[in-house]
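Subject: design request, 363 residues
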């Protein structure tokens, strides 16, 4: 098991060189969107995704989309297919962006398509990772350096070409907080473009690099058109280490990073992959909820549990890490979802709080 802080230090000079940032090539990874195939300029390095994608949801009016009936799990989750278990697979970005920009008058469909930039380089080595290992390793054959200005030009071109709104720019990875300068520079460019929302993913491991640019980063993170999703890996230190390949002692660093985001007035959301090892699922989830509550009493209500699909790259990672004795857990993910949403959260929160979208939950 490795030290992810040392790994981040090694990766940083490869991810940021001469004022340009290393961006993963999406083409050829199986992650590109089919419809984009003829838009080579974008789909080679950037990708687009719809977050509300079910036809019956896309046809709803904004008021209908804000109904609490769309929250939580479908009835009988344990006998449903995993793919369909959540009524809404993702609230972020469409709902979070709409809410931050226009409150509940906002239309989530205006923020449903995200122009996604994937930085190459991650200091974890997760066994479920959706990114192909070579794409995530600062490998020059699978990535290219771009200035922020060049990236924003691609975004503007995409906005002109698509006949539906693209108002969200998502920065994912890799771990982008190893080079937080990217987020700062990108926001400063996006600020000049009306109506954009910046969504930042992080694995909550790179506080040192965040603190090095504290003032500029804080200034970006507190803006209304910025949201951050911190992805916790596992509900306890043992599971964290099996999932990420990092030493168990770094489990607590995730909470320190989340605290830093909260202290800096970030609109913070949490992802939790539905991966729990062993039989004590409820006990582990309960313990994790308590750890989040110690940071902020409402933080568990801002969690979106992630379905771990066997996408082509994820399948390769699962097979590779299985050989390193880090297979993904055998626990049925539906059981993890059921425990989180139907058993543990109702133990701590009222019906009224449970019927809020994550973005409505005050921190
Ligand atoms: S899942 Fe995220 S944190 Fe984990 S290795 Fe992949 S990019 Fe890094």
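Subject: RE: design request

Done. Sequence follows.
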């Amino acid at each position: 098991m490795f030290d992810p802080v040392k790994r981040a230090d090694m990766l940083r000079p490869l991810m940021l060189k001469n004022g340009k940032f290393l961006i993963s090539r999406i083409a050829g990874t199986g992650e590109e969107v089919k419809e984009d195939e003829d838009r080579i300029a974008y789909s080679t390095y950037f990708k687009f995704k719809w977050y509300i994608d079910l036809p019956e949801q896309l046809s709803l009016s904004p008021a209908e989309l804000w109904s609490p009936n769309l929250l939580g799990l479908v009835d009988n989750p344990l006998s449903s297919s995993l793919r369909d278990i959540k009524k809404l697979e993702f609230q972020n970005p469409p709902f979070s962006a709409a809410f931050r920009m226009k409150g509940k008058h906002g239309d989530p469909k205006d923020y449903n398509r995200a122009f996604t930039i994937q930085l190459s380089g991650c200091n974890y080595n997760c066994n479920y990772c959706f990114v192909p290992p070579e794409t995530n390793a600062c490998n020059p054959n699978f990535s290219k350096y771009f200035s922020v200005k060049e990236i924003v030009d691609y975004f503007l071109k995409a906005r002109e070409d698509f006949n539906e709104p693209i108002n969200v720019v998502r920065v994912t990875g890799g771990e982008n907080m190893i080079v937080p300068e990217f987020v700062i520079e990108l926001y400063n460019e996006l600020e000049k473009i009306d109506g954009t929302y910046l969504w930042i993913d992080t694995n909550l491991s790179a506080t040192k690099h965040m603190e090095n640019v504290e003032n500029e980063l804080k200034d970006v993170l507190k803006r209304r058109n910025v949201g951050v999703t911190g992805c916790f890996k596992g509900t306890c230190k043992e599971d964290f280490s099996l999932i990420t390949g990092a030493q168990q002692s770094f489990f607590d660093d995730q909470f320190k990073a989340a605290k830093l985001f909260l202290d800096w007035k970030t609109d913070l959301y949490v992802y939790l992959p539905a991966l729990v090892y062993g039989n004590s699922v409820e006990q582990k989830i309960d313990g994790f909820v308590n750890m989040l509550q110690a940071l902020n009493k409402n933080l568990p209500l801002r969690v979106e549990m992630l379905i771990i699909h066997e996408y082509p790259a994820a399948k390769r990672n699962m097979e590779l890490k299985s050989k390193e004795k880090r297979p993904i857990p055998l626990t049925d993910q539906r059981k993890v979802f059921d425990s989180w949403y139907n058993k543990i959260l109702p133990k701590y929160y009222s019906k009224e709080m449970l019927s809020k979208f994550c973005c409505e939950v005050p921190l």
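Residues 122, 124-126, 129, 131, 136, 173-175, 203 surround iron/sulfur cluster (CB under 6 Å).
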